């Protein structure tokens, strides 16, 4: 009997150490702004780890995006923190939305300061937990993805990269302080935010710019030299890339032939579209996030090592700084002259 009780106690302890979640709020802009925080298995705070900000879609909640994305499970496996903030509820619809410019709902119509809320939330979380402030990333689905684009435009001093899902960008202007890497996920079957542009079939009545146009805008912002190259097109999905961008940034676009207005590889919502079975957005975005930090904005030893590793390259050279088609002594000297300075 004692041994069984001991095993039961050990089981209970292990269950409690699996992960940690807390639903909390902070006062901001006249509202109690809510969020759900997930700490990974065995978090001790002894080392700094990344933070991912996951933004729900219009009318949804922190719980729903946590469920559909599986980001908390990924966090436990890969050791990062996830926070799921929530938009303000509209007084009539009771639906939570984000102010992403022309999208969406009450938050947009009322010009809710959601960027300020996320900025304040980052400040609070980084003071309470050991977060690597060079590795804070944002993702979001639908309205949350639109808002991720706004964060990249207006909070680039804190957001290293973004991963919008089933969304577009509806801002009059975008002037980030630094280049921001982007990995975008969409389905050809998404009628709520059509990838080719137009007004969607959902409750929102705003115009959605084509995804190609949005990514080309960001290509100009990031000063990418290799524009819109198709890497994979296999009948299941298309993988396109804008590369050789300023400060080592890049833009990636996955367009699936299955799924719809949903999280690729995730869990479908009760009333939502089917999900893509061809790719897993959570796995792909985490791989992407690990490659990009705020430090990308400065020339470091890592950049020197990269150019040395490509020395002598004569085809599709990402380290061809002077644009002469190859990586030579001239490119190395150019990089050394910029060492330690903003790129």
Describe what you observe in this structure.
A hairpin with a 2-residue loop joins strand 1 (20-28) and strand 2. Helix content is 30%, strand content 24%. The protein is built from 10 helices and 14 strands. Helix 9 (301-309) runs antiparallel to helix 10. The chain has helices at residues 2-17, 62-69, 71-78, 105-109, 114-128, 143-154, 211-221, 281-289, 301-309, 329-337, and strands at 20-28, 31-39, 49-55, 81-85, 88-89, 96-97, 131-141, 161-165, 181-187, 198-199, 207-208, 226-233, 237-243, 251-256. A 10-stranded mixed sheet has the order 1-2-4-3-7-8-9-14-13-12, sandwiched between helices. It has a two-stranded antiparallel ribbon with strand order 5-6. The longest helix has 16 residues, at 2-17. It folds into 2 domains: 21-297, Rossmann fold; 298-343, no CATH class. The radius of gyration is 21 Å and the shape is globular. The chain has 343 residues and is of the alpha/beta class. The N and C termini lie far apart (67 Å). Residues 1-18 have low confidence and may be disordered.
